[in-house]
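Per your request, structure below.
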């Protein structure tokens, strides 16, 4: 494959209606404060799905926006790749539900389970599909309803996560635009630092499991933090090396939005000033697979990404999974 092969031709995003501020946690009996959450994470708000809102509904809304921006109809989609850790159903995939909602009858559709790296993995898998054969137009979505899979009594996690969907349409590259370098890694030996211990096929849900909350996300925050900084820093170097670019060639860094301190440490290592870093963790919290495509869509609509912009993406998540990508728009 000669790069750039695939380009990002359109973006969109959607969130549930309800926005929840840090102050609202105390009323739910959680021992935390707006000050602690802002100081340690940078988060001020997140969106929380309500009745009738599903991963499929917000993903479909984000997808329609991205398809409109790209000038692509549902009938033209060859594939739908959806990164998520919170699918509407364990069977079938949310991607096929989105396919049905869009009426994208020709598209092959499947989910990718790579947690916060879901969109980044999805984009690289889409590029590979396109390079391998008959795929011209691929919808890549990162979407989560994390508030449905967190333990609402656990202050270590409940304040961090939010819901949302981001979508991108990938098409064949024209005029030298598109993915110019890409990097993906995984390390399953550290899986239990961020996971849902029970409730899967290895240990199906029981009333006891539900009562103790072991079917919900559990995280060793400090350990994950250290690994995230180390891996994202390395991934930035790899993507720049792969693209044969220097940090000064990057117009915008769009990192996974988990914690402002992780973002700042990553930018510092990559030698990219914070003016060139897109940050929206304050308004969305950590939306896992959705965080990068939501940030990208906002950056595009704010005019921070335009024709010719060179953008460095970097992600890290449960698994562990991580990776990076340089894209010329
Ligand atoms: O999406 C990719 C994966 N996720 C991440 O990248 C997240 C990575 N981790 C983090 O962002 C941070 O580790 C956290 C924000 C989760 C925690 O920040 P920290 O500075 O690492 O704090 P800590 O875990 O070391 O905890 C400090 C203290 C503890 O109290 P003690 O043991 O020192 O008395 C916690 O019990 O803060 C306490 N604490 C809280 N206090 C108030 C933990 N959660 C809360 C809370 N409100 N919500």
């Amino acid at each position: 494959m000669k790069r750039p092969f695939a380009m990002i031709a359109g973006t969109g995003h959607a969130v549930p209606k309800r926005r929840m501020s840090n102050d609202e946690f105390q009323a739910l009996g959680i021992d935390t404060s707006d000050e602690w959450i802002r100081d340690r994470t940078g988060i001020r708000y997140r969106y929380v799905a309500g009745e009738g809102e599903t991963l499929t509904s917000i993903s479909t809304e984000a997808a329609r926006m991205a398809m409109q921006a790209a000038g692509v109809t549902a009938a033209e989609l060859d594939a739908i790749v959806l990164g998520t850790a919170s699918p509407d159903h364990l069977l079938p995939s949310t991607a096929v539900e989105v396919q049905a909602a869009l009426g994208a009858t020709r598209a092959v559709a499947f989910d990718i389970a790579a947690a916060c790296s879901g969109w980044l993995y999805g984009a690289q898998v889409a590029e590979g599909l396109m390079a391998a054969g008959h795929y011209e137009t691929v919808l890549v979505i990162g979407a989560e309803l994390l508030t449905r899979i967190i333990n609402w009594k656990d202050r270590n996690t409940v304040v961090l996560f939010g819901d949302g969907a981001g979508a991108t349409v990938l098409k064949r590259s024209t005029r030298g635009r598109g993915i110019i370098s890409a990097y993906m890694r995984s390390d399953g030996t550290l899986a239990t630092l961020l996971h849902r211990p029970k409730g899967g096929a290895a240990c199906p849900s029981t009333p006891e499991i539900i009562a103790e909350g072991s079917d919900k996300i559990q995280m060793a925050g400090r350990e994950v933090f250290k690994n995230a900084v180390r891996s994202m820093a390395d991934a930035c170097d790899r993507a720049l090396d792969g693209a044969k670019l220097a940090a000064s060639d990057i117009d915008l860094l769009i990192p996974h939005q988990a914690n402002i301190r992780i973002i700042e440490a990553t930018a510092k290592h990559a030698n990219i000033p914070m003016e060139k870093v897109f940050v929206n963790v304050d308004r969305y919290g950590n939306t896992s697979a959705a965080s990068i495509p939501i940030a990208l869509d906002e950056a595009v609509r704010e005019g921070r990404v335009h024709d010719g912009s060179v953008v460095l993406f970097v992600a890290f998540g449960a698994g562990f999974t991580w990776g990076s990508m340089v894209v010329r728009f």
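The mean pLDDT is 97.

Regards,
D.
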